[in-house]
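Hello,

Following up on my earlier ticket. Below are the two sequence lines again, exactly as submitted.
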Amino acid sequence: MTARNSGEGRRSFTLRDQRGASVEAQGQVRDDAAGEVVPSGPPSGGREGKRAAGENLWGYLFLSPWFLGLFLLTLGPMLATLYFSFTDYPLLAGPEWTGLDNYKRMFFDDPRYLQSLKVTFIYVFLSVPLELVFALLVAMVLNRGLQALSLYRAIYYLPSLLGGSVAIAIMWRQVFGEDGLVNQFLALFGLDGPSWVSTPEYALYTLVLLKVWQFGSPMVIFLAGLRQIPQQYYDAAAVDGAGRVTRFFRITIPLLTPIIFFNVVFQLIRAFQAFTPAFIVSGGTGGPVDSTLFYTLYLYQEAFAHFRMGYAAAMAWVLVVIVAAFTAANFLMSRYWVYYED
Amino acid sequence: MTTTEGLKKIGRVQLDARRLLAHVALIAGVLVMIYPLLWMLASSLKPEDQIFTDLSLVPKEFVFSNYTEGWSAAGQSFATFFTNSLIVCVGAVAGNLIACSMAAYAFARLDFRFKRLWFALMLLTIMLPQHVTLIPQYAIFLSLDWVNTYLPLIVPKFLATDAFFIFLMVQFIRGLPGELDDAAKVDGCGPFGVYWRIILPLLVPALTTTAIFTFLWTYDDFFSRLIYLSDTALFTVPLGLRLFLDSTGESSWGPMFAMSVVSLLPTFAFFLLFQRWIVEGISTTGLKG
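Thanks for your patience. The regenerated structure is below:
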């Protein structure tokens, strides 16, 4: 994901440079070595010999908690998960080697798994673009120097902060329920709405809406980016006779591409792992008729309701591969559309 | 009146109209966004039979029975759930502050072998879905007899598993002038002295951001609690809410809403108190909200 060749390296740096620049806005000293992907240590030159001896030890000492975590809780378990994925592992009995059976079952013999893939893909590729378009749109409106900007920003942001909680999922379930808010509203116009959360055709889309409702956090990031675009660019373009639409597509969008890219990458990664809303809204089942069976929800059911740990392990690795593939694709494509002003 | 003045005037009127339009659109948006929250709040103050029949946001009669009834309706009192959440949150915040600042200091200021490799690995773990480590971690904690305790929720934080905060602090420390370190070294500070006397005090803004977000995420976290906690006496607030939902079913929405509102209060209070930190944390680092 963090690519090693120079071209990609430059990209990840600029992403951070943008963050670094905002740190400055916070009233801190600016990172003077923002150009480097790896933190700047002293140059490894002639004085290395003496310096390295003491600092080596101290460096590893300060990192020792992190190392423990890395090996015991991250790298070790990742490898163990890979091993379990080739076994039948009911948790209380030990794992038993079954080769590729889990993977075969997943793709050829388990309609629920394929359903969970389908549900997750629909969710991700509907909610992320919608959420980001909303975020950009509102950020654009907010960026015109209106009064009460920070009040608007705070209110629009609030759902993002609350949105991942169980309480909001419960609320959502009622808003789109049989006698919920939406149907009460529709009744004013003489319309009789169904129970949206328990109708297979609509249930997933209520969850998409819940995600879009939380557009506040990418909006705040967009807003910070918009404020860094120098006003002179717009003035110069206006002198040249560029209209609002032209200025938007020729100035705003190109200069915002690093932030759009950042938002796309991280929102995608998060959306693939969504769990709580589907779990609460469907009562843990992924229903009605598996229409909200998110990938992680199915993984949870297999692992902790049916104790098919081997199968769940295989699912976990496929999820990592999917997320990694989309992230890598994002980085690869970014060279064709992300513009860095150096 | 000359024509230019007239044009200017028209221009200003147009600009004002546009501003007005923007405000109208923004306020309409705010209403749509916030309406469900206000609806839940209003419903929690209405008698049961009016929740789904009365659309108005102002209850005809205020009742607080939903709150008193809901507080202990889940078998355990919500006081227990809040205490439990607080314990886990405090533990997680302490772990992240200590472990992440230590790791960040090493990455930002010390020179050691394979630093680039470790740093790259650290960045990769930020993006790693937690599910790929879930099952072996569960097996480890099960064999340590830690399941159904708070240890699986707190101990990993002391091992700096929330790599994002390491990254945040590395960025911050790199922005601090190195002359301070040098001066301290001249005065006889070792690497630990520099960390303790120079870096940590200057790192307070980044530590504050870390503490706020660790608290908010830990408070909201549902997935890992669902897996590791089964004794209702140990339940945190989200688990308590879900227990309530399961035990009462569709029957008592008044108390359900009341407890949902109560469970959102700590997050909301944090939002009011630390709004500046939260918004800045998000705009500068892309932290999820």
